UniProtKB/TrEMBL annotation:
Residues annotated as transmembrane: 12-41, 53-75, 101-128, 140-157, 164-181, 193-212, 254-276, 311-335, 351-371, 391-416, 428-446, 466-486
Annotated InterPro entries: DUF112_TM (IPR002823)
Alphabetically ordered keywords of this record: Membrane, Transmembrane, Transmembrane helix
Pfam families: TctA
DUF112 domain sequence ranges: 13-435
Keyword match Magnesium: no
Species the sequence originates in: Paracoccus liaowanqingii
Stated name of the protein: C4-dicarboxylate ABC transporter permease
Amino acid sequence: MQAILLVLDPRVLLTALLAGAFGMFVGAMPGLTATMAVALLVPMTFFMDPIPALAAIVSASTMAIFAGDIPGALLRIPGTPASAAYVEDSHRLAMKGKINLALGTNLLVSCIGGLVGVFVLIAAAPLLAEFALRFTSYEYFWLAALGLSCAIFIASADPLKAGIALLIGLALATVGLDPTTGVPRFTLGQVDLMAGVEFIPAMIGLFALAEVMRGVIRLNHRAPAPRMPQGEGALFKGVGGVIRRHPKNIVRGSLMGTLIGALPGAGADIAAWMAYAVSKRFSKTPERYGTGHVEGLVDASAANNAAVGGAWIPALVFGIPGDSVTAIVIGVLYMKGMNPGPTVFIQNPQLIYAVFMIFILTTLMMVPLGWVAVKVARQALRVPSRVLLPIVLAFCIVGAFAMTNSVFGIVVMLALGLLGWLLEENGFPVAPIILGLVLGGMFERMFMTSMIKSGGDLSAFFDRPIAAGLGICVLLLWGASLLGAWRGRGVRSETSETRRTT
């Protein structure tokens, strides 16, 4: 009852509404992430009571994760990293005149996934946090390996080219200081590269800048720009049928997102990639993924929003951040004189229940705010390309600069934008590069840590039950992939031989 009174305070409700609108705006801007939305709100929380401060953070992060889907559908530019996994399907649906179906599905499924994450947070926070704490470097290594395997499964046409793109991403992830010795690698004498290739400028370059370059080339050649239908009518038309056809996908994506979100350091972007890959692996029509198929949107949209609630599990129960947003949350809690951890459930139980209620409230608030954001953002379609492209480029430059606070971020964006354009012109997907950048550092760090702990004994990777289970899954996954590729090659060879004989 104390928590209800705290949450229903008009100041708390107004704070959540304004922070949600701010999160929608930041998430819809290419390169401005949910973490940045929360970080920009932190100075304001100095002057707030604990409940309004937490309401602002929860609302902004929740809204920003969905808002990243809007530019992904409209412009093929993911607003946040959590939207990058399914940007191709989302944009192609819009190009087919199904923009309402794409964004309506994203919005409602995001709301459902977010609610699932919250209810799991409420019901099983201590249990899931205890499970997450059992993960050591061995388990994280296999988890990263499983995530990197997604690059092959999200490749719609050519697994070999997807593998090459993944290796490019992994190579970029090795730039910077060696995680075990601290020796600079591939920095070319540049101090800015000591911290590695920043992920956000790289994503902006590979997706947004490459798209701008294609638009400029079309204008210079006076080629007709691909006209995206306006998608008039109700936003949620046809979405009910999608939800009824794919209830298993929603449940699977939500639970996967919650579990991955509960793992410290994973977050919504990794949850989206893995949910999309699993969805394609078990789909009856995997060949349609990447061509404008709504099934992948259902899994990934549910997963990345469920991961938001899941990331709060280790943060509240043990004071361990689940992602960058909850790392900021822990700092805010300390600032307010409340130490996150098991004691907070005893000393400030009304605070915990208030957080749960705020999560439910802001997740439900996502539907009307998202509807308004989509209606407003869709006006961008009516802007001529000669005007729109410079505006998008300006936002790209701002986003790249903001993440590094230096011009070097813009240089990284320009270099990888050119690389992304060249690769896509030759049929190479850019999504595996992003995946390699996201997981490459974790993959190497956990491998080296595990090898040092085991004294170079590779069998130690299978000594622990959870690690052994994950390792077997990864090996079976790759074995099945190689077997499928070998059989497919045999069938193609037989077909070619038959044609030559004929």
